[in-house]
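The authors assume throughout that readers already know how a fold can be written as discrete tokens. A single example would do more here than another paragraph of explanation. An entry of this sort, consisting of the sequence and the corresponding backbone structure tokens, reads as follows:
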Amino acid sequence: MKDATNTGIREAGIDVRIPDIGAAIQEAMESYEVEINGKTYPVKAIRNLNGHSIEQYQIHGKKSIPCIRTGPNVKMEEGEQYAVETFGVINGKGSIFEDGECSHYMRDFDNEMAPLR
């Protein structure tokens, strides 16, 4: 939801605790409901998809920005860059699981180089 993403961006800044950003995102997202075919559904923030820090040559950094109030009580620091990504669901439990084909890949920067054939 656009409002939840804008809320996360607005709350972000130097010395802000990351779980506080997640709490603000969750509050904004879960303040909405959607009507489909005459039935009203509450919007829930997905708890296991996150935004993330962005590091040099590495789009997915080590710090995560959750869509709910959770995670280690770490702060944003000066010079860091983040992708604020918000995810919601209207008919589910607020979490996702991997199933089917993989849609994208990322290099594991913690492993040594492997020869490709």
